[in-house]
Design brief:
The chain has 6 helices and 5 strands. By secondary structure, it is of the alpha+beta class. It has a single domain, classed as Nuclear Transport Factor 2, Chain: A (Roll). Strands 1, 2, 3, 4 and 5 form a 5-stranded antiparallel beta sheet that branches. The protein is globular.
Length: about 150
């Protein structure tokens, strides 16, 4: 039987995958809620600052942008960075990043980030965001393939 942390991670990954599959249909159908432009700016700033911390190797700084639940799950910066290097290396090596239009779907705030990797393959990082107090925090991230091709 899987540990509770593994089960939680699997549930989040499956939810993210479902959102990645449903994303184009939901965005086109206009079925999503919306946030004020200033909220999206704040969300993008949090993600950008976490990316900068990750690329500097500042695990503690990067972990500070995560929700309290994720901070408890990983416990320390070293565990968090092991997870990043183990499954999210694309965030560290992307040669180009571009924020795509975010959406609130069934109450879940999703901010996609296009990643162009050194080999020109393209992924989309789907960030799940949560408000804790007055600030946005990263509640999860799922990497999904993209149909877009880089040149």
């Amino acid at each position: 039987m899987a540990e509770p942390r593994v089960k939680l991670a699997r549930r989040r990954a499956l939810r993210g995958l479902a959102l990645a599959i449903a994303w184009p249909r939901l965005a086109r159908a206009g079925e999503s809620e919306t946030l004020a432009p200033a909220e999206w700016d704040a969300i993008r700033q949090v993600i950008g600052e976490q990316l900068a911390a990750l690329r500097r190797g500042d695990g503690a700084g990067a972990l500070a942008y995560a929700t309290q639940g994720l901070q408890r799950q990983f416990g320390d910066a070293q565990g968090f960075m092991r997870m990043v290097h183990g499954g999210y290396e694309a965030l560290l090596v992307a040669r180009y990043t571009e924020f795509l239009e975010g959406a609130v779907i069934d109450g879940v705030t999703i901010q996609p980030l296009r990643l162009v990797l050194p080999d020109n393959s393209v992924l989309v990082a789907l960030y799940t965001m949560e408000r804790e107090g007055a600030r946005w925090h990263i509640a999860g991230c799922v990497l999904a393939p993209s149909t877009v091709k880089a040149v």
